[in-house]
Automatic annotation (TrEMBL):
Family, similarity comment: Belongs to the BLOC1S1 family.
InterPro entries linked: BLOC1S1 (IPR009395)
Protein name: Biogenesis of lysosome-related organelles complex 1 subunit 1
Entries under PANTHER family matching the protein: BIOGENESIS OF LYSOSOME-RELATED ORGANELLES COMPLEX 1 SUBUNIT 1, BLOC-1 COMPLEX SUBUNIT 1
Phylogenetic lineage: Eukaryota, Viridiplantae, Streptophyta, Embryophyta, Tracheophyta
Length: 51
């Protein structure tokens, strides 16, 4: 019974860690997308300003 408790605890902890890593990866992808969009807007604004 003690082993089952410890195993359940470790499984829950590892699932929490996996979820956190997934969320970090999602945030990183969102930030990369935002950076690309900002660079695109900046380039478009510069092109308009130069004309």
């Amino acid at each position: 019974m003690q082993f089952i408790k410890h195993t359940d605890h470790w499984l829950a902890a590892s699932n929490t860690i996996n979820t956190a890593f997934k969320e970090i990866g999602d945030f990183e992808n969102w930030m990369k997308t935002m950076e690309f969009d900002c660079r695109s807007i900046n380039a478009a604004t510069r092109n308009i300003h130069q004309e």
